[in-house]
Amino acid sequence: MIKIENLSKRFQTEEVETTALNQINLEIKEGEFVAIMGPSGCGKSSLLNILGMLDSPTSGDYYFNDQEVGNQKESQRNAIRKGNINFVFQSFNLIDELNVFRNVELPLTYLNIGKSDRKARVLEVLDRMKIGHRKHHYPQQLSGGQQQRVAIARAVSAKPKLLLADEPTGNLDSKTGLEVMNLLSELNSEGMTIVMVTHSERDAEFAHRVIRLFDGEVMTEKTAKEFATINY
Ligand SMILES: Nc1ncnc2c1ncn2[C@@H]1O[C@H](COP(=O)(O)OP(=O)(O)OP(=O)(O)O)[C@@H](O)[C@H]1O
């Protein structure tokens, strides 16, 4: 599903140039659950943003389902992302002015799905995320775990092929975090490909595979072993 070849991302500010990703190569197959780990500043978010087509690489290629997307125009990337890729964030990013039902319905509106179809899909996904009983509540009336379940419902209501999660349990206590990880695992076992950035070794255990980044580079198994002897 995903193939990245010799991909680099550099940020240029007035004084300095930062290499966030340096000549990365990686592949992710359909149906995989992959965790991306590494110390702060190693390039995890930069990689997730590129995978999600929110940002483009400075050099190198990104193939999504065999189509080169990294070097496409923004409008083209947006069109490919629509319906294929969705996101879950650490800070939930729900719209405070909309109730739970409307938050989850919104992305379906952009996909031009009819009203009765939307309603059926929203109710189904809210039930699956065990939050259907809160559909008339507003985000601020919910606990963190409930908000994240709504955010996951919103992200998966359009049945994306790829779900990108940026520290999805970062703002949750460990019990609620575990519930969220179980939901993500369930979605993955039904076929959704998941790529998750995490600092939590416990969350990473839910993944099939961990990609470790260090200073913008993917660590090989060998360098990862060497690295394990250093504390970070
Ligand atoms: N928009 C930007 N402009 C300039 N530099 C940036 C920008 N975004 C990221 N960087 C730099 O690129 C490097 C990688 O950042 P990135 O956010 O990808 O790391 P990260 O691994 O996600 O970190 P954290 O775990 O702290 O979120 C860092 O040195 C960061 O300062």
Would you summarize the structure shown here?
With 232 residues, this protein is an alpha/beta fold. It has 8 helices and 10 strands.
Summed over residues and divided by their number, the pLDDT gives a mean of: 93
Could you name the CATH homologous superfamily of the largest domain? Answer: P-loop containing nucleotide triphosphate hydrolases
Ligand inventory: adenosine-5'-triphosphate
Strand fraction? 25-35%
How does CATH name the architecture of the largest domain?
3-Layer(aba) Sandwich
Poorly predicted spans: none
- Radius of gyration from the CA trace? 18 Å
Strand order within the widest beta sheet:
6-7-8-3-9-10
Number of strands: 10
What profile does the largest beta sheet have? Answer: 6 strands, mixed
Q: Would you give the CATH topology of the largest domain?
A: Rossmann fold
Q: Terminal Cα separation, in Å?
A: 32 Å
Order of helices and strands: EEEHEEHEHHHEHEHEEH
> Class of the largest domain in CATH?
Alpha Beta
Q: Class by helix and strand content?
A: alpha/beta
- Gross geometry: globular
Number of folding domains? 2
Q: Quickly count the helices.
A: 8
Keywords: ATP-binding, Nucleotide-binding, Transport
Organism: Ancylomarina euxinus
InterPro entries: AAA+_ATPase, ABC_transporter-like_ATP-bd, ABC_transporter-like_CS, ABC_transpr_LolD-like, MacB-like_ATP-bd, P-loop_NTPase
GO molecular function: ATP binding; ATP hydrolysis activity; transmembrane transporter activity
